Fold this protein.
Amino acid sequence: MFWIIMEDQYMHTYIILFLLILLSLDCTALDTIYANQDIKDGKATLVSDGETFELGFFSPGKSNNRYLGIWYKKISHGTVVWVANREQPITDTSGMLKLSRHGNLVIRSGGNPMVWSSNSTGDTFLPGMKIGKDLVTGLQWCLTSWKSPDDPSVGEYRNIHDTNGYPQNLWWHGEILQGRLGPWNGLGFSGSPVEKENQIYSPEFIMNEKEIYTAYQLKSRVLQRVVLTWDGKTLILQWIERIKDWIVYANAVVDICDRFSLCGPFGICSINKHPPCICMKGFEPRNREEWEASDWASGCIRKKPLQCGNGSGDGFWKIARVKVPDTRRVWYNVSMTLKECEMTCKGSCSCTGYTSLDIRNGGSGCLLWLDELLDTREYEADQDIYIRMAASELEGLVDSLSNFNKKKRTLIVVLLTSTAMLLLFAVAYACRKIRKTPHMKGQGNWYALDAKNTSLQMEQLDDLQCYSLHEVARATGNFSISNKIGQGGFGPVYKGVLKDGREIAVKRLSETSQQGLDEFKNEVICIAKLQHRNLVKLLGYCAHQNELILIYEYMTNKSLDWFLFDETRSLMLNWPQRFKIIHGIARGILYLHQDSRLQVIHRDLKAANILLDGDMNPKISDFGLARNFVGHDTITKTKKVVGTHGYIPPEYAVHGRFSIKSDVFSFGVLVLEIICGKRNREFFHADHSDNLLGHAWRLYKDGRSIGLLSASLQASCVVSEVLRSIHIALLCVQHHPEDRPTMWSVVLMLVGEGPLPKPKPPAFFTEESYNELESLPSVDECTITVLYAR
């Protein structure tokens, strides 16, 4: 219990008013502000803009310490939004909150006259609160993380609105700058999507002689909060009454390009390019050897030096649609035009680039960079930047562009002339084709053509949307190569955006693919009936004449192999993340084998088919080769062996027999690859010719399994978890399927601590053991769909 000492009958209201001021809420916008007349159970109730909060002492998580805090009263018991004495916890129940006649709010405990006074930060950003700086008092409002879920004292992470140069939001881990949200450009923050149809919240930026801050207001009656978690994630959380829980509405860090200055000075990051870093026009890698090894930190340098002051006159090259560089070393003027901004930049030898401050109505204001350009990225926004360049270099680029345009015009004339005669024939042929082609009918049915040009009809799929080819083409920029994000056995994969703003991944059947209508139908029917947090979600499909297209939810972090087998990106996957991925994959496979309505054998589990969402949660994808089965011991035989070498077990590769133990084998290979960071088939060791399975087995027999661990994981690993995971993987890749555990046993072993059975030698553990497969075509990482067993 605690006491609130009231020195007059209205003091409880003053407490609430004072706390609201601490939280930087705009009290004038509130409908009602009041406290209960009676303080019961050590809590005071307040209502802010219709939402009810409680003020009182609490103990977070498993801690026995006591803290004064504010939390939601009517929903989500224990969701704390503000903590007073973060650094001075009370160790007993003698806590006392007092507001004196002089307006000082203090917490006292026992003999300690003052545990806390009213000046603190928090980890939660509520509507109406401010992040920024009071220019009169020097007070700064920022977000600071807790140390742990059980300890609300100030942690290692903080989000601030930095007022150096031109204000912008920065995310820090200790003294390391991790990322930033670009400056306000009139419509939103540079580097953040402008959600024109956002009906939930509206961001705002205020800068005057008294204060600089950002805030946001809710437009609808939803409950939303921004939280800086103890492990450094900035999450927008929204309360869903139906499930009585908070869901992640958005994550501040979306992809690898959100990492601060990934591409170094004068580099540009593009999530649609592989690798993501390129140099700006007129620049080249500072250290080409490091750059080609995917270490871009040293950035880029000019090919030709600037001639400022020599009368030659430097020029500017426009880079369109970008998140502007770091603005801590800039000069700005809010009243200049863009032309005046250019002249000002040209008149200063230290100016490296310029842009408009406000991009509304054609642009206004001036922002000049006076140093290296850091943390620039391509972005789907309306902001451009103009980069200073030597006149001779600029002339070369202009001439190159001019020659390109001349060739382009000539080519267009030739193409128009050569195709004019063909156009009439094409139109006539198309008209005849349309009359003979069956069309889509109804909501749930679709028709496509098989090799014999006959119509095939799918069963009703009421819970899946059938998209028109026009919708899909519009979403992907007519299947633009700039939107291509991958390539698989089925065909290319494109990133797209639907009309309602949802991001999607579009998988389009390639003309050269050895998969086809059967695999397309199989995936649509199969995955439409599967729902699990570790399976990718199919949103719909498109079947128009010979176009077969699958539409999935978009995974911001792409696939596991994109991280795992890249020397630089693999550093972003520490051991806790990899162990979490192993668990997620195991649970997903268990669902397929045992808990789903269909009972499915995937048959093509590999790192490329494990997608990662914004929180690095794994999701199994690509069900084109999956098969239904009945019973755990069912073994099926086929003449058409499908899958990927390095992941398929011997009984399947050689004899065409597959079962749930085939997926168990693939899972075991995946686990070893996740631990080692190397592909099974591409693994090389100077002392022997074993593949990854053989190397793991060799180390296990010698009692040196920890030697399999990637060097990048040594600082973050839990040795017992690593050794247990390797042991389980070796059980999964044993030669005979009857020796391998079920996925149910695998999941239990991963979460348990008991003794494990001794594994037998794995299959295909030396290069020699692959000899019997050498006559089979295609041994790369592409999916095999026409291998026949001998």
User: Anything to note?
Assistant: The chain has four domains: 1-120, 257-389, 437-554, 557-787.
